[in-house]
Automatic annotation (TrEMBL):
PANTHER family to which the protein is assigned, alphabetical: BLR4455 PROTEIN, OUTER MEMBRANE CATION EFFLUX PROTEIN
Primary subcellular site in the record, as a coarse category: membrane
Membrane topology: Lipid-anchor
Family: Belongs to the outer membrane factor (OMF) (TC 1.B.17) family.
Segment forming the signal sequence: 1-22
Keyword presence, Membrane: yes
Keywords, ordered alphabetically: Lipoprotein, Membrane, Palmitate, Signal, Transmembrane, Transmembrane beta strand
Annotated region described as Disordered, given as residue ranges: 105-126
Gene Ontology cellular component terms for the protein in this record: plasma membrane
GO terms, molecular function: efflux transmembrane transporter activity
Matches recorded under SUPFAM superfamilies: Outer membrane efflux proteins (OEP)
Protein's UniProt name: RND transporter
Pfam family name, one: OEP
Length: 466
C-alpha cells in the first residue's frame, strides 16, 4: 500500500512544482523623448550598408588605427579579465541549472571491524566482522515553489548582464584607443605646424638681423624675433612630451610594453565622419551598460521568488539501492540487495523573522536595481544629447575658426611686407605672427575635438551602426 501512496504524493508535488513565487517581471519603465533634441545638419549621410556594424573606427579610414583596434581585441588584459568574468557567470548558470535534475551518486565500501568487549549495550554477536557494500544514492528536490527555477533564471540573467559588461569593456577600450590615437595625430599636426612656423620665424630673425646690421632695425626687433623663434621651439618640445604620453597609453591598451612600442608620426589628415543618429529605441538595445542594468533588474526580480520560496516547506525525495554483505565473493546477488526510498518534508516553524527579512531584502535589491537601470537610461540619453550638441556646434565653430585663420595669415603676410618696407615696427609682425599661430593651432585642435566627439557619440550610442 505504501507504493501507491508514495506515487500519489510525488504526482501531487510534481503538479505543485509548476508554481513560482517570483513577481511577474517587466523592465522598469522610464519616460524618454521620441527623438533627440540636438539633431543638426552635421549628419547628412550614413556609412555604407556593407560596413560591419562593430568596426565603427573604419569611418576614420586609417589603417594604423584599424591595426591597433584589432590588437586591443587580442591582447588587452582588461578585456581578457572581462571575458573570464563572463565565463564564470556562464559556469554559475550551469551549476544552478543542475538543480533542476536529480543527483545520482555511486559508491563502494569494504571494511573489517573489531568490536570492543566492553562496548555499550553489547548483546553478543561476533567480535570481528567484515562489511562490503556497493550501490547508488538518489536525491531530488521537488521544486514546489519555483526556488530552483528562479535561481536558474537569476543566474541566467546575471550571465547576460556579464555578457553586456564584456561588450561594455570592449567598447570602452576601443573608444579609449581611438581617443588617444586621434589626440596623438592632432599633436603630429601641431608638431608639423610648429616646425614650419619655427622655420618661418628663423627666416624672419635672419631678415631682422640683416636689417639691424644695416641700421634699418633696432636691437629690440632682433630680440622680439628671437623670442618668437625660441617660443616656437619650446612649444615643439612640449608637444613632443604630450605625444609621448599618448603613445605610452596606446601601448598599454594594445597589451605591449611602453618601452618597446612606438608610432611613426604622420601628417595625413583624417576625414571628418558623417555620423547618423539612431532612434532612442535603438539606443536602449545597443548600449551594453543599459542592457546589463536591465538584466540585473531581472535577476533581482527572480531572487524575490527564491526568497519567498524559503517561507514554505521543501520536499526532497531521496533513496539508495545496492548490494551489501558481510564478506565473501558473491556480493552482487539477490539476497544481498537492499533499497530505500522516501520523501522528506522540511519547513521552518520559528526562525525569528529571518526568512521574512530575506524577502524584504530581495525586494529592496530589486528596487535598487530598477533605480540604477533608470539612472543608466537617463545618463545614456544625456550622453547622446551632449555629443550631438558638441558635434553640431563644433562644426559651426570650425568654419568660423577657419575664416579667422585665413584672415590671420593675410595679416601676418601684410605685416611682414610692411616691415620689410620700413612702414611698421617689428611689434606689428610679432603680434600678427602670434595671432596666426594661435589661429592655426586652434583649427587643428577643433578638428581633433570633432573627431573625438564622433568617438564619444559612438560610445554614447553603444557601438557602431549599419
Amino acid at each position: 500500500m505504501r507504493t501507491p501512496r508514495l506515487l500519489a504524493a510525488v504526482s501531487t508535488a510534481a503538479m505543485l512544482s509548476a508554481c513560482s513565487l517570483a513577481p511577474p517581471y517587466a523592465p522598469p519603465t522610464i519616460a524618454v523623448a521620441p527623438t533627440y533634441k540636438e539633431l543638426g545638419p552635421w549628419t547628412p549621410a550614413a556609412p555604407a550598408d556593407a560596413q560591419p556594424r562593430g568596426v565603427w573606427w573604419a569611418m576614420f579610414s586609417d589603417p594604423v588605427l584599424d591595426d591597433l583596434e584589432a590588437r586591443v581585441e587580442k591582447a588587452n588584459p582588461d578585456l581578457a579579465a572581462a571575458a573570464a568574468a563572463y565565463d564564470q557567470a556562464n559556469a554559475l548558470t550551469a551549476q544552478a541549472r543542475a538543480g533542476l535534475f536529480p543527483e545520482l551518486d555511486g559508491g563502494a565500501l569494504t571494511q573489517d571491524t573489531h568490536r570492543s568487549d566492553n562496548a555499550p549495550l553489547r548483546t553478543g554477536g561476533p567480535n570481528n566482522y567484515a562489511a562490503n557494500q556497493v550501490g547508488v544514492s538518489l536525491a531530488y528536490e521537488l521544486d514546489l515553489w519555483g526556488r530552483v527555477r528562479n535561481l536558474v533564471a537569476a543566474s541566467g540573467d546575471r550571465a547576460q548582464a556579464s555578457a553586456a559588461d564584456l561588450q561594455s569593456v570592449r567598447l570602452s577600450l576601443q573608444a579609449a584607443l581611438a581617443d588617444d590615437y586621434l589626440a596623438l595625430r592632432s599633436l603630429d599636426a601641431q608638431d608639423r605646424l610648429l616646425r614650419d612656423t619655427a622655420g618661418a620665424y628663423a627666416r624672419a630673425l635672419q631678415l631682422t638681423q640683416v636689417l639691424h646690421d644695416g641700421g634699418a632695425a633696432t636691437g629690440l626687433d632682433v630680440g622680439r624675433a628671437q623670442t618668437q623663434l625660441s617660443t616656437a621651439k619650446a612649444l615643439i618640445s612640449d608637444v613632443g612630451a604630450q605625444r609621448a604620453l599618448y603613445e605610452h597609453a596606446i601601448a598599454a591598451l594594445v597589451g605591449e610594453s611602453a618601452s618597446q612600442f612606438s608610432l611613426a608620426p604622420t601628417t595625413a589628415a583624417l576625414p571628418q565622419p558623417h555620423v547618423p543618429v539612431s532612434a532612442p529605441s535603438l539606443l536602449l538595445q545597443r548600449r551594453p551598460d543599459v542592457v546589463a542594468a536591465e538584466r540585473r533588474a531581472a535577476a533581482a526580480n527572480a531572487q524575490i521568488g527564491v526568497a519567498r520560496a524559503a517561507l514554505f516547506p521543501s520536499l526532497t525525495i531521496s533513496g539508495s539501492s545496492g548490494w551489501q554483505s558481510s564478506g565473501g565473493i558473491d556480493l552482487i546477488a539477490a539476497p544481498n540487495t537492499f533499497w530505500m526510498i522516501g520523501p522528506q518534508l522540511l519547513g521552518a516553524i520559528f526562525d525569528g523573522g529571518r526568512r521574512k527579512a530575506g524577502v524584504q531584502q530581495a525586494r529592496a535589491v530589486f528596487d535598487q536595481a530598477s533605480a540604477e537601470y533608470r539612472a543608466t537610461v537617463l545618463n545614456a540619453f544625456r550622453g547622446v544629447e551632449d555629443q550631438l550638441a558638441l558635434s553640431n556646434r563644433l562644426a559651426v565653430e570650425a568654419q568660423d575658426q577657419q575664416e579667422a585663420t585665413q584672415a590671420a595669415q593675410r595679416t601676418e603676410a601684410l605685416a611682414l611686407t610692411s616691415y620689410r618696407q620700413g612702414a611698421s615696427t617689428y611689434l606689428d609682425v610679432v603680434t600678427a605672427q602670434t595671432a596666426a599661430l594661435q589661429a592655426e593651432r586652434a583649427v587643428i585642435v577643433l578638428n581633433s575635438r570633432r573627431l573625438q566627439a564622433s568617438v564619444d557619440l559612438v560610445r554614447a550610442l553603444g557601438g557602431g551602426w549599419g
